[in-house]
User: Fold Transcriptional repressor from Candidatus Uhrbacteria bacterium RIFCSPHIGHO2_02_FULL_60_10.
Amino acid sequence: MTISKKCLSERIIAFESAVRAGQLKMTDQRRAVYRAVAAVETHPTAEAVWRAVRRRQPDVSFATVYRNLGQLRDLGLILELRPKDGQVRFDANCGTHGHLVNLKTGAIRDVPLIGRPPRPRGIRTADIRHTVVIFYVAGE
Ligand SMILES: [Zn+2]
Assistant:
């Protein structure tokens, strides 16, 4: 499932803003990797991102895509999720939200979260990340 053009546009603006702030060098491949994650709500695997990027850049290697995913994750521009053993999925929705994970199909959906977790003494709010994962089994 793809996201709205408005939401994708907002994500791309935030991404390009981070680039302009000097946090990382812009390359066509990095932009394509970010766009492949940001354009969908499916929380794609690295392989799914690679397939999406190869539609426009057929020569891009899996290693390049995977390295860029790691760099974007390290900069906080995407989230890395491990909803099940051995699975790694990526998410451009960096706002506070939880995940509904269908253990039967592997589908992941965002769910809104209200409020913030308690902040331990001496830790800045900006340094806290949390997620809630709700597992269920349904469908084919
Ligand atoms: Zn998400």
